[in-house]
Amino acid sequence: MARPKSEDKRNAILAAAIKVMAELGPGAPTSKIAREAGIAEGTLFTYFATKDELLNQLYLEVKGTLHEKMMDGFPHGAPLRERVHHAWHAYVHWGALDPARRKVMQQLTVSEAILPATRIKGAEAFCGISEMIAESVSVGMLRDQSPDFAGAIMSSLADMTIDFMLRSPDRKENYCEAGFVAFWNAIGGK
Amino acid sequence: MARPKSEDKRNAILAAAIKVMAELGPGAPTSKIAREAGIAEGTLFTYFATKDELLNQLYLEVKGTLHEKMMDGFPHGAPLRERVHHAWHAYVHWGALDPARRKVMQQLTVSEAILPATRIKGAEAFCGISEMIAESVSVGMLRDQSPDFAGAIMSSLADMTIDFMLRSPDRKENYCEAGFVAFWNAIGGK
Amino acid sequence: MARPKSEDKRNAILAAAIKVMAELGPGAPTSKIAREAGIAEGTLFTYFATKDELLNQLYLEVKGTLHEKMMDGFPHGAPLRERVHHAWHAYVHWGALDPARRKVMQQLTVSEAILPATRIKGAEAFCGISEMIAESVSVGMLRDQSPDFAGAIMSSLADMTIDFMLRSPDRKENYCEAGFVAFWNAIGGK
Amino acid sequence: MARPKSEDKRNAILAAAIKVMAELGPGAPTSKIAREAGIAEGTLFTYFATKDELLNQLYLEVKGTLHEKMMDGFPHGAPLRERVHHAWHAYVHWGALDPARRKVMQQLTVSEAILPATRIKGAEAFCGISEMIAESVSVGMLRDQSPDFAGAIMSSLADMTIDFMLRSPDRKENYCEAGFVAFWNAIGGK
DNA sequence: TATGAATGAGTATTCATTCAT
DNA sequence: GATGAATGAATACTCATTCAT
């Protein structure tokens, strides 16, 4: 049983898990996820040995999607501020346009089921972005911190911004930019 | 009245819930909470009719503790920056010194069990603080937002800062101040 | 603790039990009964040592009420048919006017909680009536049975008749008399 | 399909429910029923979604068995009295030979758990029998009632008769016939 | 490989009864 | 005697996981 047959089915399960868990939280029953995915209860376990494994894979999948969005159309040659703005814009719109995925990410982030190893793996993809942000930092005190700190500033402010965007959809773009201003100031962006 | 309902017991249950849920999440069994509180399984339900009610009360209790800490020794007459710094310092040290309470707050914040009404009630106490922060805002774009936005900037950055303080206890104070700098810059504090 | 103080309270409990059990069946919680009776949960147990005792007393009370109604205004000197008709009329109207009490009697009659001794005691009061009915029996085969058999014919037909009276309140009296005719024929009443 | 849901198992559960509930009433725990049926506690709920559904299905099963017995060997061409006697005989012997089933029917009949829809469905099968009995009715007043009334006279008297048959097994047949005489007279059978 | 019935430990909640006040 | 908080065994139902088909 090297790799299970259908990549499609694996994706269907992950998609179903996002849908169901956005509503029911990480306590959502695997049976409901299976039904939503259009497969039998038992089949889920040929793709994910345990529910915890599903949760961990899901965490990675969700973080992966976010990363993908942030790199999609990334203006590699552009000035720093523009590049960072691209990342910011992609982040908050990812969350505002796909609230289920984002809800699941929030829940899994604070869940005991996600292993430290998974968290590390999930963070790895964002190294580059963190470093880019760190480059923008002009505030002395913040320059002394690891790039992670700058990256974390972005995540936390972006996440907060998404909340406001979801609460007031008509002022979405306003919040997106207000959030960016706060973020850019926070790191003393040049 | 026979035996009056004991405030002590109520508090013991809430304390036990914090301890147990910090480890097991909101899915923690009420039986474990009762045992930890030193009471019978059934007794828990004379104080909280359902587990959901316990969760909602707990949310309020935890937010309340945080608010209390932030107002404890508050330098009412001091300059704005000092007052905001007091609030920040109290917030992040509350989280760093009582990680269980803080973990529970994080988990409940994203839990479906917390009713909107509870969230509103929990936020009310922080109005004053949000307004104080909003006063500090000098960035034009951010001035146009509600005080909530400023308050949310603080919460999200403080929360992120706590993570770093917990991960590197020896650099706790360093992170506390670095976080404050980022926050103060974010809102363009004067 | 010879006899508990208040006979009123005892009656309140029995009345409450009837009301609550008519809705919830014999599984009705004693706490609900106590609340309905306007007393504390624990007080119920100074009047009835256990729930089963309450149930048994209730059975007797309900049967007693029925018997009382049947003897109320009983035309002692009247011809047999008239006397039997009085009993019948009282029975079915008791059930039709107090459906809660009657529902409880039905439920307790088939409940495992009612002790044989209680059933016997409850039946004793009806000996006289059974004997009166037995006197009316003119059918040879039925004359050979114990008076109980004649009494049981009456109870079962009366109970059935009550069902119809409750289902069609506007035809109540019609059913009362139709039932009596069936009953009188059944025993070959002279 | 994997393992198909086994009709045998469903029947085993119903049989177990009859046995256990005859002793413990409708309050009998599902766990005891499952054990008696030789299955796991949880398995019961793959066959009956809730205990109430089990109760309702059981009601139908029990009524169905009774109806089956009444129609078994039914002398379709025979004179009316003989046909009615067949039904009566089958009814009371069903109850006398399978007291557990009959006890359960009594209990469920007065239970709040049985839905009106279930009662209607359970009664449908007996329409034909009620009509046959109604045909036998020669008493003017009873002729004006719906066939249900005649059917109800039979049920109530048969049920009473079963009680006597069970209490005095050696006089079983005597009571069967005495009961029939009463019944036949009640409806003024021709 | 896919299926879904079977499992049984686990969970929130109820409730008769006790007993401190 | 009256109260109602405390108790903990009992109960319906759930759910991750297994495994026969």
TrEMBL record, chains A, B, C, D:
Pfam families, per the entry: TetR_N
Annotated region of DNA binding: 29-48
PROSITE patterns xrefs: HTH_TETR_2
Keywords: DNA-binding
Gene Ontology molecular function terms on file: DNA binding
Highest taxon above the source species: Bacteria
InterPro entries in UniProt: Homeodomain-like_sf (IPR009057), HTH-type_TetR-like_transc_reg (IPR050109), HTH_TetR (IPR001647)
Classification via PANTHER family: HTH-TYPE TRANSCRIPTIONAL REGULATOR RUTR, REGULATORY PROTEIN
Protein known as: Fatty acid metabolism regulator protein
Source organism of the structure: Herbaspirillum frisingense
